[in-house]
Structures are given as structure tokens and as C-alpha cells.
Specification:
Length: about 130
Amino acid sequence: MKMSAIAALTLIGVTTAACVTATQQKENMLSAAGFQIRLADTPAKIASLQSLPPHKFTVQNQNGQPVFLYADPTVCGCIYYGTQDNFAAYQQMVFQQQLASEQQMTAMMNQQMAFDYGPWGGPFIPY
């Protein structure tokens, strides 16, 4: 097998694993926010699940109240459903996660700024 084919297969595998991990993390937050899960375990439920956009929120009206749906046909073959409060809790978790990521990135950048390039000649100085 050629090296380019091996590299392409490796890239596809890593990308797929990263997508599954990100989706699983999102679904963990949905559960933590109070969303309920229903498995698509009948042909009618599978067809209904497939009619929704995958891995995206949709809002339906049930008895005059909004119900937030999140369809996952690939990882769990299920639908997550919750209330406005569940969705607000999920959004708060996403915000906290983004804030933590930004703080981590800032800390890494500050650590890199403290690196002494003197012995190396600096990153922009030619040899």
C-alpha cells in the first residue's frame, strides 16, 4: 500500500474518531442538562428519526409548550428531547466549556510568550 493511501486512511480514521468523540461529548452534556432519550427501536421511530436533521436542534410545539429535539441517527440511534429549561442548561454548559477552552488557550499562549528564544535566535531571525 502506498504511503499516501496509508496517510489518507489514517486521516479519515482520526477525523471520524474526533467527530464521534465530539458528538458523544455533546450528548453527555444533553443528558446532564436533563434531556430525555428515546431509542429508535421500531421502523416508525427510525423513519421519524431520519426525517429530522442529524445532530441539530429542532423545536416542536407540544400542548402549547416548546419541546427541543436533538436527533442522533449515527451514534445512539435515538432522539433527545427536553424543555426550555433543559435547553437553557445545555447552552450554559456549552458556554462554560467554551470559556474554559479560551482560558486554556490563553494560558498556553502566555506560556509560549515566556519562552526565551535568545539561544535559538528567535523564530523570525534567519540563521
